[in-house]
């Protein structure tokens, strides 16, 4: 198959959506498909796919721009500048299938390829609102196949679109326990060796609730909070930390290559988002052997089961107690069961669904994928 993956952040950012889709693209290319990736970053060595650079204005430039329908946040502003180039390039019509999670503009640009016979697949990495909402710009959404990254999205959309339930994955050759590497990372970042480290890997945006996590950590006696992330609320986070977490807060920015050792440097992992589309960080923390403290939801139980530290994160007392328990137990999370989330397994499910979409055999409430039974149980 000839497949195009297009997203403004490719090769420019290493956030959840970019990591997930590039991992799928890489696996498909390694196993014989002709894969092209379009993004606004620069070419990287040793990628198994072909990369095409299309310029875009970075989302950081748009953080203070107004929020409007179609331009609701800095990511959509960036998407618009990328999609204009994508549409003019004519790339979409050269492939059997196109794939994106960018909405509205990248999705609209790729739909142009349908005139040349390309089938278009949308992935709900950033939410499924485009697939079911009839408000504002969401009325413009369409696709030939919908990849749903969690069971709630699949249940909501499977009768409307040809859909498959396919989660994100994990590279177990990169993420795994390594005490020596963790100690070295602590030393590199200037983190104390004698205090527990709680790690958050989250963007500084409202939905990630990083500031709420900081307030909970402040109630622990000596825990140090490390946040790997950036975003419009970084200034508020730094100011709050100076007030309630003096000498117990570090905001760091590391390349993707440094993230496995950052997980290894921590004693527990905290994620505060309530409405995740998936959450690659859950798998990364799990693979690294960290106890995971997160919202008790259908999604987290579907991914993690009931062996982690799940609670109602909106209740401060319950969250603080759960954090304290995760740090005091001394238990490291086992890796049993995580193999079903490895990228070769996930990419094979993408290939099967894309083949069905190209062949025209994918129908609403038809192609589900092997994770659908687990979703029904959840």
TrEMBL record:
It comes from the Bacteria. GO terms for molecular function: glycosyltransferase activity. Residues 16-174 form the Glycosyltransferase subfamily 4-like N-terminal domain. Keywords: Transferase. InterPro entries: Glyco_trans_1 (IPR001296), Glyco_trans_4-like_N (IPR028098), Glycosyltransferase_grp1 (IPR050194). Residues 185-329 form the Glycosyl transferase family domain. This is Glycosyltransferase.
